[in-house]
Write a structure and sequence with these properties.
Mean pLDDT of chain A: 92
Shape of chain A: globular
Largest sheet of chain A: 6 strands, mixed
Strand content of chain B: over 45%
Radius of gyration of chain A: 14 Å
Largest sheet of chain B: 7 strands, mixed
Number of helices of chain A: 0
Number of helices of chain B: 0
Largest interface: A-B, 22 and 26 residues
Helix content of chain A: under 10%
Mean pLDDT of chain B: 92
Distance between the termini of chain A: 41 Å
Oligomer: heterodimer
Radius of gyration of chain B: 13 Å
């Protein structure tokens, strides 16, 4: 079945540091890939997405590129802020199986210190 | 931005009791979902609902679980006889069409004692 694996947290960085959160996936078909973010006390919010190989999703300074050859969708940001502290979830939706529900990774907590 | 609303934010119950978790999806959305996250584990899909019936469910969604859209605005998840292992954060989500992105609520933290 489909699965998503992401690096364990917490990830602790100083403000303005470079961020990478690794995400790899296995899928039966050709999935769409997502990053969701959950700020404290809030729901899951879509951060960015990519629907085909080599697509780059970007939002709020975050980027992730759909790499079919390495089955990866790593999240990056060049300079993190304290306000980026949250839990980040990588997820996929596998259209080819007809299933539209999301398969999530376990989440990575990011803590940014001033 | 429109919001999915979940109530309560926290619920504590005794093992064996019935609980109903409530969600108000975004008003013109047609597809509805429940997910859960046991502490420290992955967010897991439970069930999807469309056109007043379940369209897909996971292995987790056994006979103890049921969903309902009783009045055209609420979308509920009922657990008939709770077990300790049902303790988790339960997320509701909705979306307008099959290919669209889901909007998530802030979750209900269920604790079964």
């Amino acid at each position: 079945g489909d699965s998503v694996t992401q690096m364990e947290g917490p990830v602790t960085l100083s403000e303005e540091a470079f961020l990478t959160i690794n995400c790899t996936y296995t899928a039966t078909g050709y999935p769409s890939l997502f990053w969701y973010v959950q700020y404290p006390g809030e729901g899951l919010q879509l951060l960015l997405k990519a629907t085909k190989a080599d697509d780059k999703g970007s939002n709020k300074g975050f980027e992730a590129t759909y790499r079919k050859e390495t089955t990866s969708f790593h999240l990056e940001k060049g300079s993190v802020q304290v306000s980026d502290s949250a839990v980040y979830f990588c997820a996929l939706s596998d259209r080819d199986t007809g299933r539209r529900a999301l398969t999530f990774g376990s989440g990575t907590r990011l803590q940014v210190q001033p | 931005e429109p919001e999915v609303t979940q109530t309560p934010s926290h619920q504590v119950t005794q093992m064996g009791q019935e609980v109903i978790l409530r969600c108000v999806p975004i008003s013109n959305h047609l597809y509805f979902y429940w997910y859960r996250q046991i502490l420290g584990q992955k967010v897991e899909f439970l069930v999807s609902f469309y056109n007043n019936e379940i369209s897909e469910k996971s292995e987790i969604f056994d006979d103890q679980f049921s969903v309902e859209r009783p009045d055209g605005s609420n979308f509920t998840l009922k657990i008939r006889s709770t077990k300790l292992e049902d303790s988790a954060m339960y997320f509701c989500a909705s979306k307008w069409d099959k290919e669209g992105r889901p909007f998530f609520g802030s979750g209900t933290q269920l604790s079964v004692l």
